[in-house]
Amino acid sequence: MKTKKVCVLGAGLVGKAIAIDLNEKYYVTSVDKNKSNLEILRHKHLINTIYSDLSETRNIADLVQGFDLVVVAMPGFLGYRTLEAVINAGKNVVDISFFPEDAFMLDELAKEKNVTAVIDCGVAPGMGNLILGYHYSRMLVSNYECYVGGLPFERNYPFQYKAPFSPIDVIEEYTRPSRLVINNVIMIKEALSDPELIDFPGVGTLEAFNTDGLRSLLYTMNVKDMKEKTMRYPGHIEIIKLLKSIGLFDDNEIDYNGFKVSPRDFISKFLIDKWKLGPDEKEFTIMKVVVEGFEDEEPKSYTYSLFDSYDKLTGFSSMARTTGFTATAVADLILDDKITKKGILPPELIGDDEYVFKHIFAYQRERGIEYKISTD
């Protein structure tokens, strides 16, 4: 019997998957300004919906009243302000918006409001953090690597890429300086740097490059070497570098026939159609996480491998599944009082709990998301 209520802010591809999944067990209300997405949720899945422009964060406090938990599935540029508003409203929250600001700036507020706020709760960042947090509490970790990518099976020229979420968030990933740890020192490198080719059985050769995916791990995990790389089909990176080099990712507005427009806003609008997944278009998520170090004073290495593809039965993209069902697994744990710590909690800070760790993997396994684990 349903008893608890969840509010999902954002009804994009991932937000819809979150709402539909949670609606199996909880009373769910989905909030967005996209009427067509809300129509699908309301008529096809019988989910309560509210039409609201969530960029107006002053409305959020009223919207989330009466709910036991809030899930933030907003674009990154709105994420921090939205999370702050939810915390101010005193609501426990799971966030997948991957905003560029430092979430720990809200830690004191969350503790003051007695709020549990699990952030970066997707596939990467998200599951990689969880894996490292689990092993970090059980071994002396010296090296952490995460390779991740979401790609269409069909490689259409020129981009060979489709995005199941906002292009502006992808552009942010391509422009934000990358932070990695080399010999215990945080190093800053340009996004898209250090490309390397990696072969994956059943997929072929992919190109990996630096992106700023370590995020909270830089400060919560004392590991000698850490890096996170994004993977695309070979050739994609050169096109992105070209667009970047001619200024199409710049934020500064330019004047065009009396109108002010930023190149980034323009190219984001243009890429929405170019990168949009078609109806029933097949895509996949691939991830490899390596944790190395010493366990019981012996060298030990764990490798977690994921290959997940579009689910034709539900219509969920793989990225929506692998990101969304991490968030819903954590939401389920909070609602069941299995995660009660207050403050800002990136996944590595809940991954040390064996029950939490195993529940999240089991929850995803029930939905067809299978991580293969090998050890050396």
Description:
It is a single chain. With 376 residues, the protein is an alpha/beta fold. 32% of the residues lie in helices and 28% in strands. It folds into two domains: 5-123 and 319-369, NAD(P)-binding Rossmann-like Domain (Rossmann fold); 127-309, Dihydrodipicolinate Reductase, domain 2 (2-Layer Sandwich). The chain contains twelve helices and 18 strands. A seven-stranded parallel beta sheet has the order 3-2-1-4-5-6-17, sandwiched between helices. The protein starts with a strand and ends with a strand. The mean pLDDT is 95.
Summarize the structure.
32% of the residues lie in helices and 28% in strands.
What are the SSEs and their pairings?
Blueprint: E1 5-9, H1 13-22, E2 27-32, H2 35-45, E3 48-51, H3 60-63, E4 69-72, H4 76-88, E5 93-95, H5 107-112, E6 116-118, H6 127-136, E7 140-152, H7 167-175, E8 178-182, E9 185-189, E10 196-200, E11 204-210, H8 217-220, E12 225-232, H9 236-245, E13 254-256, E14 259-261, H10 263-274, E15 283-295, E16 298-309, H11 318-335, E17 343-345, H12 354-366, E18 371-375
Q: Secondary-structure element order, as H and E?
A: EHEHEHEHEHEHEHEEEEHEHEEHEEHEHE
CATH superfamily of the largest domain: Dihydrodipicolinate Reductase, domain 2
What is the fold-level CATH name, i.e. the topology of the largest domain?
Dihydrodipicolinate Reductase, domain 2
**What global shape is seen?**
globular
Please indicate the percent range of residues in DSSP E strands (runs of 2 or more).
25-35%
CATH class of the largest domain: Alpha Beta
Named at the architecture level, the CATH assignment of the largest domain is 2-Layer Sandwich
